[in-house]
Amino acid sequence: MTAPMLELKGVRTNYGPIEALRGVDVTVAPGEIVTLIGANGAGKSTLLMTICGNPRPASGSITFEGRDIVSLPPHETAKLGIAQVPEGRRIFPRMTVFENLQLGATLSDPAHFETDVAYCFDLFPILKQRRDQRAGTLSGGEQQMLAISRALMSRPRLLLLDEPSLGLAPLIIRRIFDVIAELNRSRGMTILLVEQNAYHALKLAHRAYVLAQGQVVMQGGGRELLANPEVRAAYLEGGSH
Hints:
single chain; 241 residues; alpha/beta; Rossmann fold; 2 domains; six-stranded mixed sheet; four-stranded antiparallel sheet; 10 helices; 10 strands; 37% helix
């Protein structure tokens, strides 16, 4: 079996007196799309933020490509090749689309810059049209495309996506998920996806974990969990297909 790219063992994370993660074990192998699903407050976003070093886990281990990263601050984890697209996008609204992409490329070899910008514009042609527009004036879907593109500019080996479909129109959601599949298929990019749209996420993922109250309560292949009656009842009944 291939050694995992990312491995969390017994991770516990606290927000003050609240235990947000309670002994979580998660592995992501190179080239996989792994998704985390669960209700609001299950600990999904906390898990992604803990990987990036903010907050730090109270206990447990996190390794990336065999290296312990528990004590690393966020900018150091970014240097290792981990990029996060946070919930709520968090683009720089006063900067242009192009300037946001420039910021994303800070850690990359400048020799790749033009190629990487062209790749992002191929993925999301609307961004090319909006190149010199302030990011804050973009639609929600366009901002999400920019947030993903900004992360890609760092040439990550592991891409963390936090609720990329949140608040978007169905047509845009389909485009976002198509791009995630394309990144994995054509670039072999390893992706850890947190997503409330369980149907789309499980359909896309090689493997999946279900989180509830800070713990992993179920895991398996994406299609396997998609067909699981418990998962369907809890997360898919009445969900958008």
